[in-house]
């Protein structure tokens, strides 16, 4: 619509008007350069593990920006900036293409075919470019949609600007993508949408994991989410698992999948390759999945 178009245009030109916010604007300009010139952006990958035996069953792609002066800038700092200043569409497309390109390189190297999950911003949903960016990327790199999962937060799923999201999610799933709801439990909405939306997986936010197993309230919440997800036939992965105690609690409570520093930090591609080699060489309890289980 004209109104929506108008909003996008004013966002795109906000940099020039926001004179009092100089350090932030400098960052916006250098992010724009990074997108145009390449080289500074990178995807890190964090492994996802089965609680029963530690098997690696997937990877989450996490965006990193190596700024020439500031060093590694956290996505929590530059993604909101990109969203506010009209760069998120381009950035999101870069992530899609980079993840798929990396998956193709891993396949050429004969690495196990692990599903990769990418994070999708609200802007990508309501700008409506997501579907075409995905399909052209999959075709260009020769990757099956079933290998690329999409993580969306509650606020993305419920953002009215995205229009009726149910048919869009259905179409994405029909192509083969799996859909996860990220940071589950941190939103403000009712649980009714879980029944309405076609989803595959809940990512339980690390806020509920942090104080496990000692905090009885978090233990109750986690157990209740697991029971609810079972009833809804949704898979659950717990984020931010850092300790053996957390892992043991989750496994005993019936949580099949975890992700967190306990098993591995997000890693650059080179470090991940070394990590895989050392896993394959020395461990019988932590292995790579050769078939996607998630
Ligand atoms: P997220 O998708 O919930 O990703 C999980 C975050 O938790 C990551 O932070 C990861 O490094 C961190 N993490 C993983 N395991 C642990 C743990 O055991 N303990 C602790 N304390 N933290 C852990 P990161 O990489 O800084 O990303 C932050 C957020 O930025 C992500 O949260 C996601 O919302 C967003 N993000 C990252 N990459 C992208 C992207 O490519 N596109 C979009 N739209 N958003 C992204
Ligand atoms: Mg995520
Ligand atoms: Mg998350
Ligand atoms: Mg989170």
UniProtKB/TrEMBL annotation:
Signal peptide: none annotated. Residues 24-280 form the EAL domain. It comes from the Bacteria. This is Cyclic di-GMP phosphodiesterase Gmr. It comes from Halomonas chromatireducens. The gene is gmr_1. The chain holds residues 327 to 620 of 620 of the full protein.
């Amino acid at each position: 619509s004209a109104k929506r178009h108008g909003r996008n245009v004013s966002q795109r030109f906000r940099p020039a008007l926001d004179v009092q916010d100089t350090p932030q604007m400098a960052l916006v300009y250098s992010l724009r350069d990074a997108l145009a010139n390449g080289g500074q952006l990178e995807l890190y990958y964090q492994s996802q593990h089965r609680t029963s035996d530690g098997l690696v069953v997937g990877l989450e792609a996490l965006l990193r920006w190596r700024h020439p002066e500031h060093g590694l800038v956290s996505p929590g700092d530059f993604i909101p900036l990109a969203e506010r200043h009209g760069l998120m569409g381009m950035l999101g497309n870069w992530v899609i293409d980079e993840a798929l390109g990396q998956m193709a390189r891993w396949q050429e190297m004969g690495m196990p075919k692990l599903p990769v999950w990418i994070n999708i911003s609200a802007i990508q949903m309501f700008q409506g470019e997501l579907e075409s960016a995905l399909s052209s990327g999959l075709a260009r790199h020769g990757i099956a949609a079933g290998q690329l999962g999409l993580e969306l937060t509650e606020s993305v799923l419920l953002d009215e600007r995205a229009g009726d999201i149910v048919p869009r999610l259905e179409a994405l799933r029909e192509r083969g993508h799996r859909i996860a709801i990220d940071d589950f439990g941190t939103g403000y909405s009712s649980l009714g949408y879980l029944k309405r939306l076609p989803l595959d997986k809940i990512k339980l936010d690390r806020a509920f994991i942090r104080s496990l197993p000692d905090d009885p309230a978090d233990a109750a919440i986690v157990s209740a989410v697991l029971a609810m997800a079972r009833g809804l036939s949704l898979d659950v992965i717990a984020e931010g698992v850092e300790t053996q105690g957390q892992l043991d609690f989750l496994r005993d409570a019936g949580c099949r999948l975890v992700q967190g520093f306990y098993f591995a930090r997000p890693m650059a591609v080179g470090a991940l390759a070394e990590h895989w080699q050392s896993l394959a060489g020395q461990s019988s309890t932590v292995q790579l999945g050769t078939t996607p289980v998630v």
